[in-house]
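Crash report, auto-generated. Payload:
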Amino acid sequence: MGFTVLRGGRVLDIAAGTAAPADILVDGDTIREIGPPGLAAPEGTVEIDAARRLIHPGLVNAHTHSHGNLGKGMGDRWPLELLLTAAPMLTGHRGLDDLRLSAQIGAIEMMLKGCTACYDLFFEWPVPTREGMATVASAYAELGMRAVIAPMVADRSFYEAIPGLAEALPPALRDKVATLRMAPGAQTIAAIRDAFDGWTADRDLVRPAVAPTIPHHCSDEFILGCAGLARDFGVGLHSHVAESKVQAVASLKVYGKTQTAHLDALGVLGPHFTVAHGVWLDPDDMARLGDHGASVAHNPGSNMRIGSGLADTRAMLERRVNLGIGTDGATCADNQNMYEALRLASLVSKVQGPEWRRWLTTREAALAATEGSARALGFGDRIGRIAPGWKADLVLLDLDHPNWMPLNDPVNQLVHCEDGTAVDSVMIGGKLVVQNRRPVGVDLAALRDRAEAARERLYAANADNRRLYEALEPVVGSYCPGLARMPYHVHRYGARAE
Ligand SMILES: [Zn+2]
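Recovered output after restart:
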C-alpha cells in the first residue's frame, strides 16, 4: 500500500470543537501528516477529493453481538430476561455459514453508518471453536472492518443463574431447559485457548477477547479461567454487568453483594475489563471500575429498548470510568447505527434531571464514541483520533446534506443532527470500505438472497424452540419481574440487613 491524500476536507477535532480545512496524508494504513490545504505528497500518491466533506474519526462500537443480525425484527416487548429465554429460538441451529453471514450483515451496516471498529460478543453453541472464531474473524477481515471478537460463554444456564426460576417452572419445562447449558466450563476454556493458539488474523485489524457473559451465569472458577485466558494472551475481558434490575437483584441474592463487588473480590477487574451496560451500578461499583481503569460500554438504545433503564454516565465519568458507547446486538437494539447511539447517549443523560450542568455534553459523547470506545477495545493507542501515527479510520460526511445545512457547530451536529444519511465514504486502515454511499466490493443483492435463504431455513429448524419460548414466556415473564418489584435500594440495603 502506498500513499493516499485526502484533499479539501474539513477535519473534525472533537476535543477542540473545530473543523478546519486541512489535507490528510495517509501512508499505508496510518495517518502520516495533517496540514493546510495543498499539503505536499510524495509522487504517485493517490488523491481523494474531500471537498465539501467533514472528516471525523471513525465511530467505534463498544458493544454488539454479530449473531443478532440474522434475528433483527423478531421481537417487540421483551425485557432482558425474555430475550435470554428467546435465545434458542433466535440463534438455534446456526452453522458456520450463518455465523459468517450474520457478521457480514452487521459489519456492512455499521460501516455504511460511519462505524469503523466494533467489540463483537458473538455466540457459538454449545462451545466456541477455532473454526467459529476464524469464521467470524475472516468475515470482518475480508470486509476490511476492525473488530475485537469475543466468544460469549457461561457454565450455567439462565435458569440456573436466576434464584428460584428453575423451581418456578412446571416439571416438564424444567426438564427441557436443563438441556440449555453450554459445555462444561473446563471444556469451554480449553476450546477458547485452542482458538487463541490458532489465531492467524492480523491482530491490528481483528483481535480476540473473551466474554464471560453475565457474572452469575458463570461459576467463580469459570470467571477465573476466562481471566486467566485474558492474562495469558493479553486480550480483553467483557461482561454484561448491572444490565437489568432483575439481573442486579438476582446477583445480590447469589453473591450477597453487587456483581462488580464480586468481580473485584475475584481480582479480575483492570484496564482490560469492559462492563457492558452498567445501568444498575451504584457509586461504589463505579468507583471500583474507575480505580481499576476499567471501561463501561454504554448502550442507551438497548437499555431503553429492553427496559433496562437509564445509565448515569455523569456519575461514571466523575469516578474516572472510561466511557465507551455501543449499539448492542440487533435482537435487543435493532439497528447498528452509532450516530443514533451517540444521540441517545446525549439524550439519556439529559432526561435524568433538571441539573443541566450534570448532563453529558456533545463533546463528551463524541469522545466516548471514539477515543473511549477505542480504549475499551484495547485499541486506545491507535484508533479513535485523527492524528499523525494513528490508523487512517476516517468517515467523510457530505456537507451538502440537509443534516449540515447550515454548519453551525460540528460536534453538536455530529451528535444531535447526523443519523448516518450523510455518510459518503468510509476509510479503514487507509482502505476505502464505503464509497459514494455503497459498500466497496459487496454484492448487496447476493447478500440479501443468502440472508433470506438463511431466514427461511432457520425459521423452520427452530419450530421446537419457538414452541418452547411460547411455553416459557408466561412463567419467566411473571417470575422475573416479581423478583425485582421493590425499589432497587431496598433490595440492595435490605439484603445487607437480612
Ligand atoms: Zn450485549
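Post-recovery validation: The longest helix spans residues 463-483.
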